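Hey, can you fold this one?
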Amino acid sequence: MTTPLVVLVTGAGGVYGDATIRNLRRSSLPTYIIGADTEWQAAGALVADKAIVLPPVDAPTYVSRLIAIVEENAVNTVFISSGTEIRTLASHRDELERKTKALFILPSPALYKMASDKLATVEFLVAHGFDYPVTVTAKGTSTIQPFINRVGFPVIAKPRFGQGSRGIIVCYSAKDLRGVAALEEEYVLQEFLGDENHEYTVGVLATEKGDVLASITLRRWLKGGQTAAAEVVDIPLITAYAEALGAQLQPRGYVNIQLRMRNDRPVAFEINARVSSSTGFRALAGVNEPELILRRYLLNENPPRPKAKLIAMVRGFSERIVEAVIWK
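Sure. Predicted structure:
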């Protein structure tokens, strides 16, 4: 093909959007990339082919401005990259596509709702026959003692609707549990799985029909809720578990499965229906997720499954020289 695909990437100032733009640059597909963010100095937008400032997602003009950008630029595909935008737009995906005729890379409302709720996530795992972490609500007075009798201390307390490592508390005693129960935010208690040196994130690309396009498994170490260091690993048991789960979830492209091992078997404890902070590293390892999505959804190709290179990375900081611009 010679006509470039016009791609809009929002959240271009964050790690997700910036990495998506860099991955599209690495792709062999001809693309015209529009980077959008709420700030003019967004790193990803400044190295895109065109940079646009969007209103904040909670502004009354946000949706109408987004639609106008898509229509004015004849955008083929929109990668929604920031968490706040995904939360706002997931329930409007079909409506946005009808109005703009563009493809929006967003999870379905049902998948987003389930993946954002740790109790619902565990219920999904149970219902579909996947190994799961024993989990109860922190305010369930009739269930906490049987839970402790079953799994013992320590246990993990997490906000039911939290993401990443925000608000996580390790409880070593009944006193710790009472402190969690007294919190205003709703928490769940979960059995303590494995150790921090054996935590895995598996990126699975799959379609609404359950076709798996690719997967890559990283053993990772977190900092600030994002992957700070990782190595690509090839563990067939984890791959089989995560790909089967990804196919069952039927996402539109991205799904990220966080897991640890229990008795040498993988157990998912979190599902994220969005692009991962490690997507840039995955492309360096040979799994270019946005390119695979474009090939399948826009070009109707069945790209060969990429085999990830077994490399390691540490995330750092870098500076870029860009043109001095004032955005309108």
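The chain has a mean pLDDT of 94. Let me know if you want another pass with a different chain boundary.
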